[in-house]
Batch of 2 targets.
Target 1
Amino acid sequence: MTRDPRFDVLFEPVKIGPVTAKNRFYQVPHCNGMGRAFPSSMTEMRRTKAEGGWAVICTEEMEIHHTADHTPWAGARLWDDRDIPVWAKMCDGIHEFGSLAGAELNHAGATTANRWSREVPLGPSHFPVEMYDPVQVRAMDREDIRALRRWHRDAALRAKKAGFDLVYVYLGHQLSTMSHFLSPYRNRRSDEYGGSLENRARLAREILEETKDAVGDTCAVAIRFSVDELMGDAGITSEGEGRELIEMFAELPDLWDVNISGWEHDSATSRFKGSGFQDDYVAFVKQVTTKPVVGVGRYTSPDAMVSLVKSGKLDMIGAARPSIADPFLPKKIEEGRIEDIRECIGCNICVSGDHHSAPIRCTQNPTMGEEWRKGWHPERIAPKDSDASVLIVGAGPAGLEAARALGQRGYTVTLADKAAEAGGRVARERRLPGLSEWGRVVDYRLYQISQMPNVSLYLESEMTPDTLDEFGADHVALATGARWNADGIGRQNPRGISIADGAKIMTPDDVMAGVVPDGPVVVFDDDHFYMGGAVAEMLLRAGADVTFVTPAPEVSSWTHHTLEQHAIQKRLLDLGAKIHCGQNVASIDKDTVTLENVYNDALQVLAASAVILVSMRTPVDDLWLARPEVTRIGDAYGPSTIAASVYSGHRYARELDAAPHDGVPFLRELVELSPN
Ligand code: ADP
Ligand code: SF4
């Protein structure tokens, strides 16, 4: 197939200072939970994206000096020459495919507690560090400022030595010392580095000029800048200082990489923001500079990308998450395979890897982070090892992905589901408020399967032990999912909750089926991810009187790792929910619920005509109990995230017919013992 000519503009080369990007697809810096801690995994992940056609591929934030040490975060590090080989390897992998490598150099002053180096953190003014570390930033004196400029210059030279083509001056997300100097609320200095915007921007200007001087002959020098902090007058705005800063520095960098901050706004989930949500903030930048401008907005549609370029809003299409969900997105557009794009669903499971300093994972792309350690390529898979037939029961994310990947291998696959609609939990959850984009998990796989003559999908086909036997497939995988418990068993109540006769108990499955109880409703969330907050929101929007109860100190606590917690709690409050944190449900009676304070056991009674219990799920594994020789995958094996189900289905497909293996099922790198 060939490229649709209307997308030609996306494949024009772009000159960036002394280097040229081969097309307009630009993978902006993004964290991956691997960095220096899992370097081979990281380098192969970036190399795979180069193979997939991205013209520029950047590192995540890269520590330049031990005075800004993010330990235990598993990001990039370039403290001295000993760190160069990892990055040289990454650059070589990227250059193999004619792409450019970018280094997001950073000194993260006030956002690091220096837990390993034990240096006193540095910033423009005395201030507590981010998070709740009991550590303060020391106000930098002139000698510190001179030193920081030297450290940045030295790091740029190391980046050049490693083979980078593009070096960043990072002024984004309130995550760098330069952005802290720029900030009207962090910088309280009265010298030439404080006060007016020109003074607050002095350090950035000096570093930008010195970086260009040090490496600008062969490396492009980019600025990454958040034009709006969404704090109104308290911070930088795109109509105020954000614009003024770009006007001041307009032609100084070789490229502008612009966005909004903090990270939770820049990487907003689809639950809260649609694709292109940053366009209005950054659209002015191209009017102020002639240098190439990169912006992001979870762009997955090539038509939207073309219109951004043609309307003069952006020169290059920035992408972090779309490049994670589909490392081959540019190649697919180039080859005229638009339908094959695996679109990001905006769930931010990828972010959770960074938060946990564990290798990145992605809901849509089960191979993300597995490129090196398992040798999983996002597009290629080994052909089948036998002519065996496979029956998969359940067409949720696990069953669909297993069928798709087995179909790609060439197996003859039958996928059967008792429901009238494919998708399992995703078919239900995509109807929760804000989660419609999650349906892409199903849509992508259904389309792929529909193109495979060797895969057949049968809906309204409930399987029983007898029909399993009758079918007589060589391999059977049960992807029959899980159901929410109605007994309250969960973290806070391992033996369940005392429930009186006549009490109306519901689960998220009931709410997703559209049941809206009359009278006051209590949503008890002992799950702590999105489900409790989402069903509460659904009920509130349907007009219910909702009280949200959780033993945690806040609503949907785990969603900190998807950058959503604040937005979820705000939304419930805005919709009128009453919220009780630090409370367990001690017992449920016909029209009341008794809450117990998790700290001092104090009791209180609330009126409740119905209680929605969101605590845990139990596998639907009756077929396995009857036929224990079959394999369980996805939630039927261990209820978890949608990402885990997709991964489980993919793994089953990869490993079918492989010899059993008892050891660690992936490659590892070990820290070497020092000879001294
Ligand atoms: P997972 O996340 O593991 O993919 P889901 O709960 O999303 O699990 O999907 C499970 C699917 O299995 C549902 O669509 C459900 O209708 C289907 N299912 C469950 N039991 C049977 C059965 N006995 N026969 C056919 N389909 C079944
Ligand atoms: Fe997109 Fe979710 Fe994958 Fe992140 S984990 S890239 S948000 S689909």
Target 2
Amino acid sequence: MVAVYDIQVTKVERSKLQDIPLENIPFGKYFTDHMLEADYENGEWKNVEIKPYQPLLLDPSVAALHYGQIIFEGIKAYRDVNNHLALFRPMENFKRFNMSAERMEMPTVPEEIFIEGMRQLVELDQNWVPAREDHALYIRPFMFASDELIGVRPSDKYKFLIILSPAGPYYATPMRIYVEETYTRAAPGGIGYVKAAANYGASMHPTAEARKKGYDQVLWTDAFEHKWVQEIGTMNVFFVIGNTAYTPGLENNSILAGVTRDSAITILQDLGLEVKEEPINIETVMEAHKRGELREVFGTGTAATISLIRELKYKDYVMEFDVSTWSVATRLKERLNGIRSGKVEDKWGWMSKVV
Ligand code: COI
């Protein structure tokens, strides 16, 4: 790749790493020493900088704060058994980020800034990548509208940033999920397939209501009948019925095309399961449970990795599972962890070397 952007690097004088316990790290609480920042103005990207992690100084009129033109991604860097660092399928997140940008009428970000900038940033903060199983360096690229104007129109100026956070498991224990029938996450023509901050903002209230009832997250259903399953909180969802794994298809643009979802489909097929991406009716799931054929339910996501679901509640019907007897989600998780830690052959070329 011909370098067009000169990435300026300013390093910290002293790393904060020694002040932070890398054991049992809560997700998203600590940030590394450096961040990447770039500006979009007059139709071009400029001021691409890696610099000490610091607050942003923003005018209160900044457009993103008023109209939510904000998108983000989640990617992880892993340390393998040979002490090499690699990013997990970063090109997939890069493509999805720019697809989100187009839907939100924002500029796309060049590969050299997104991928090469990320690689340089992770290399600089490499000591922050945890070595423990189920731990990684979570990478958060994001972009927001930075015009200082509260007129409702696409911004002319944008900021792109990448910050890094050492992370343990997002959901540490098997989850209880509430099937949502009142609120809606996404409808055809909307932004369900986009990693827009707005999708997460809108999920807070329904999730808080589910929490009050004792559930960890909601399973979203379609906007019209509240029967067709979409995704769970921060994850895509899989149901194992007999020897087939089912996950909702992406055809309505209402579901996030998860990179972990795609990886899970590939691995499950490799493990000998049939995988069907198709519309899934929650009544069908309930019927399968009544017949004793619903074997496993799990979620997939970058932050969540593979998260087991021990309870699913639909109307008054409660589906409970003994996750200790499961084999599909556990084999899937083992294979994915094996690829990431370098213990299992990376036969699909998913790991992208940093150092
Ligand atoms: C991710 O899995 O990367 C997510 O974006 C989920 C969440 C932490 C917002």
